[in-house]
Design brief:
By secondary structure, the protein is of the alpha+beta class. The protein contains 7 helices and 8 strands. It has one domain (7-249).
Length: 258
Amino acid sequence: MPGDGCPSFLRAVWNSLECKRAQGDISTSWIVTPRLYSLWALTSRVSTELFADCFNESGVLSAYCSIDVNDAAFSALGRWEDHESLIQGGAGNPPFDVQLISSIVRRFEMGVKRSSPYCRLVILPLGKRYKLTSHINSLTSEGELLVSARPGSFPFMNEQVLLSKEHHKPKPSKYQSLGIFVWCNREYLLEYSPPVDIEKLYQVCIDATLYTPEDVILHNDAFLRAFPLELRSSESMIATKQMQRGELVLIPPVSKQS
């Protein structure tokens, strides 16, 4: 979890978890991990998973089923992988909260304006009920929506286990749409140059791993804004890919200082 650098964020997460535990809605949970996250780790050295259960194909309790129209609370706050000293791995499942999302996005906005390298790739729900897309757009001048996917597209390597009084069967048609956002500053791109064909890299991974790649949209204009051509590496990562045991394997970028 983010450590000493963001105590208010930790308190918000903790309060959400305690509230759900007091209601008896959650006993234990495991993180769901789509294979696409491994691509993020390779291309950005940072992956942040927020509200990872938006597709919720494991079919868990009603409060976390991510139904777009009638849900009161949904989703999962997932894991962090970061090279910053203040951040460690962590997981939790608070209810969806607009104020919590706002706090997270504002922190990303401040981080991008640092003079040191900063990058966050996040996965967020795009459902109509909470109008999150317009909410994010109103909060950010730095974030870009790279990928949007319809419900039921993501494969999960590990099922999430949430124990509740009320279990239900998965209903993929009612799950949230999902978006991959990036907050990244110029200092980060100067140190970790993205490959020249980063859009194709994402598309290759999507085609290889997602259930319905035709339901996933890559926003090429956002890729150009987030990863300007003049800051990209001249090397292609597509040529280095290979398939092992049915999974995409890529050679990660190396810091220019290494």
